[in-house]
Write a structure and sequence with these properties.
This protein has a six-stranded parallel β-sheet, with helices on both faces. Strands 9-8-7-10-11-12 form a six-stranded parallel β-sheet, covered by helices on one side. A six-stranded parallel β-sheet has the order 14-13-15-16-18-17, sandwiched between helices. The protein has three domains: about 170 residues, Thiamin diphosphate (ThDP)-binding fold, Pyr/PP domains (Rossmann fold, 3-Layer(aba) Sandwich); about 150 residues, 3-Layer(aba) Sandwich (Rossmann fold), CATH 3.40.50; about 200 residues, Rossmann fold (3-Layer(aba) Sandwich). The chain is of the alpha/beta class. It has 22 helices and 18 strands. The longest helix is centred in the last third of the chain and has 21 residues. This is 2-succinyl-5-enolpyruvyl-6-hydroxy-3-cyclohexene-1-carboxylate synthase.
Length: about 575
């Protein structure tokens, strides 16, 4: 059998098994050594491919797509530093539990460590940031090797999805010549349509004895608190709201919890806690008897201070499969169970829980006070960052996705995203919390046609401007709300702001860039707004615009900091006067 036939059948069986195992989307970055893999993916009728030139952008594009689809997406690159450019997105995927299948082409073994060009050590190059690594054997069309190729492809998809989802890495060496021959008979191999490793992966549930144990632990308490951190299960909101309603305890809902938006009951949802928990007196007064937290740690730093202030409080963290996400360092009991199922099972126990009614009313009163000032904030002559987010949440379409950047963007969303009957899926890269790759992530989420808005700051936009090429190439519809405060606005809220001599050089980092040129270069529509009415009108129009639309809101870092502090001070003053 010839080298070309070995190469073709081996690669085709591998790719075909990826498709049988449920993979339909692949993001390819061009290169020579990856030719067999890339050409075979394009040839397969069950695979949709996206070609993104820059590997860092490609990996974040796939990350955003995998988040939106909630299933694995593959990335393919050539050998050498191309694979190294995947690293930031792989780290984010690992910590945010996103299934990525990383397929790196490599030089054959005899060309490694001998000075051959475009050759680096790719074995386990992502270390512990992937759930599984495998170095494939060289292409061989022997039936045993074709079966082997299928087994590894199937396993890659399974492991990426299994338990806490995450990235897997398969390194594939290829010898030259690299061009497959798709005229071969039965190039895709076995006609059997089933996957190589079919799996039935059940959800973890807590048994009756364990449920009774939990209810007994809560039964003699008066002040219960449910906290919903970042998570992506849209159906969870209904279950947790029903549990809170039955128990009559407050629900602190992070903006990424999927609990603030939707048709479920939200009378017990507390969304303004970030504003009033800034006050130490309030934090001390509102000491709970127990906390049940679903999902990751909330974005809010005041909430982190709150749990740190009450280290002796019983805390229960619900993890879907496994994990240890408790940055406060408090003593914690972990419950490994499906979150939605746990809520339903606790409700099914039908045990009456008598918690302090005044406790709930205090949370609701403080929340209403916060919302009064946040919904109708002190106005300025120009649009502030908080007002821009508030306006966006009023205008954003129902049944759409909102992808939010880190630093100030997600914090302003936390503050100004009030409960709404709209169905919004809110996504973010909160695994490693970096500002890189945000444009590509937002475009990846929008690539399959769902209405999508990306909210981010100017430094995040600058970090990933080359990601805009995907919008031009694939005519992706995306509205970007670009908050431009000419630098690192979040540092104005941190102690570094007091270091006047070095602040602007090291933290403010003003860039003075006119982004319109880059946006127009990539075929986008760009508009700068100066008032809330302008912002509202331009946003409405952007959702009808085909392609990329960037709505830029220019703000001043110092004024923005002072404006935020005015809102927080007003809330604090009214709460203090109400004591």
């Amino acid at each position: 059998m010839s080298h070309t036939e070995d190469l073709t059948r081996y690669t085709a069986n591998f790719v075909d098994e990826l498709v049988r195992s449920g993979l339909t989307e692949v993001v390819i970055s061009p290169g020579s050594r990856s030719t067999p893999l890339a050409m075979t993916i394009v040839e397969h009728p069950g695979m949709k491919q996206w070609v993104i030139i820059d590997e860092r952008s490609a990996a974040f594009f796939a990350l955003g797509m995998a988040k939106q689809l909630n299933r694995p997406v593959a990335i393919v690159c050539t050998s050498g530093t191309a694979a190294a450019n995947y690293f930031p997105a792989i780290v984010e995927a690992y910590y945010s539990r996103v299934p990525l299948v990383v397929l790196t082409a490599d030089r054959p073994h005899e060309l490694r460590d001998v000075g051959a060009p475009q050759s680096i050590d790719q074995l386990k190059m992502y270390g512990d940031y992937v759930k599984w690594f495998h170095e494939m054997g060289l292409p061989d069309a022997d039936p045993k090797m074709l079966n082997y190729a299928r087994s590894k492809a199937s396993r890659a998809i399974h492991v990426a999805n299994e338990g806490n989802a995450g990235p897997v890495h398969v390194n594939i060496p290829f010898r030259e010549p690299l061009i497959p021959d798709f005229t071969l008979e039965n190039v895709w191999g076995n006609k059997d349509s089933s996957m190589h490793f079919p799996t039935i992966d059940g959800k973890k549930r807590v048994d009756h004895t364990q449920l009774s144990y939990l209810l007994e632990k809560f039964a003699n308490k008066k002040r219960g608190l449910i906290v919903c951190g970042p998570q992506t299960n849209r159906d969870f909101a209904e279950s947790v709201s029903e549990l809170a309603s039955k128990w009559q305890i407050p629900v602190l809902a992070d903006p990424l919890s999927q609990v603030r938006a939707g048709q479920h009951h939200k009378d017990l949802v507390i969304e303004g806690y970030d504003a009033f928990l800034r006050n130490e007196t309030v934090r001390k007064k509102m000491k709970p008897d127990f906390i049940i937290r679903f999902g990751a740690m909330p974005v809010s730093k005041p909430y982190l201070f709150y749990v740190k202030d009450h280290k002796d409080v019983e805390q229960y963290i619900v993890e879907e499969h496994s994990g240890y996400r408790e940055p406060a360092g408090n003593r914690t009991e972990f419950i490994f169970s499906d979150s939605q199922g746990l809520c339903e099972d606790l409700l099914a126990m039908d045990k009456e829980m008598l918690f302090d009614k005044e406790w709930l009313e205090d949370w609701q009163r403080m929340n209403q006070t916060a919302k009064k000032y946040l919904i109708n904030p002190t106005h300025t002559e120009t649009v502030t960052e908080g007002e821009a987010v508030k306006c966006l949440m009023e205008v954003i379409p129902d049944e759409s996705f909102l992808y939010v950047g880190n630093s100030m963007a997600v914090r302003d969303l936390d503050t100004f995203f009030m409960t709404t009957p709209k169905q919004l899926d809110v996504l973010a890269n909160r695994g490693a919390n970096g500002i890189d790759g945000m444009v590509s992530s937002g475009l990846g989420a929008a690539a399959n046609g769902q209405p999508t808005t990306l909210l981010l700051g100017d430094l995040s936009f600058f970090h990933d401007m080359n990601g805009l090429l995907a919008a031009k190439h694939y005519k992706i519809n995306l509205t970007i709300v670009l908050i431009n405060n000419d630098g690192g606005g979040i540092f104005s809220f941190l102690p570094q702001q007091q270091q006047k001599d070095q602040f602007e050089l090291l933290f403010g980092t003003a860039h003075g860039i006119d982004f319109s040129h880059a946006i127009e270069m990539y075929g986008g529509k760009h508009q700068i707004v100066t008032s809330e009415k302008d912002l509202e009108d331009v946003l409405f129009a952007s959702y009808k615009h085909e392609g990329l639309s960037v709505v830029e809101v220019k703000t001043d870092r110092t004024s923005n900091m002072e404006w935020h502090r005015v809102q927080w001070k007003q809330i604090e003053t009214e709460l203090s006067n109400g004591e």
